[in-house]
Predict the structure.
Amino acid sequence: MSFQRPDGRQPNQIRPISFDRQFTKFASGSVLAKSGDTQVLCSVTIKPGVPRFLENTGQGWLTAEYRMLPGSTPQRQEREFMKLSGRTQEIQRLIGRSLRSCLDMQLLGERTILVDADVLQADAGTRTTSITGGFVAVADALNKLVQKGELERSPIIRQVAAVSVGLLEGEPFLDLNYLEDVAAEIDCNVVMNGDLNIIEIQGTAEEGSFSRSQLNQILDVAETGIQELLEAQRQALVRSH
């Protein structure tokens, strides 16, 4: 008897995904990304200048900040001010690495892209939703610079998307919600680009360990989910606003 999903999805089925573009007025790009009951507001600011280590190189930079808002979980999340938790630091670095992988920094020039991922509602998969929605927000922000004539063309060279996969009763399940995430023996987050090449794998055995063949199963299931997410991004970006 395999694990029965609380929402009745098939093991290899992602949650409904949507991207509400230009969600706020002032950000260069802003997307409310929804994956099931998880909602993340991805906002993008582009400013001139780069960190000191990139000055006079002609290259740009992208960095990310991630926060969970106080009302995003059943028990109020305390706001993180000066001291960020290890989890928050790890997630925002992951978002930054993932989104940098889709850019030609020479084409960007000496500009810095700041991606803010604010979790409005958390039902697991907040980091993966931040990456998948963040890509759409970055694409919108860069397209605005092209339209203004500040860039000749968008520095985006490939898409990027991310999804979670967990092992429950030894079987891989795609895009876990919170109840599944808590129950999973193995929890993985997989980031891939538009060519389905791997950007990053975060895999943790919550109990015991997992085998190489199980890892291959996890990646196969992740790939099917990421293909759907990449298509959802493309569909969102062709819709005019």
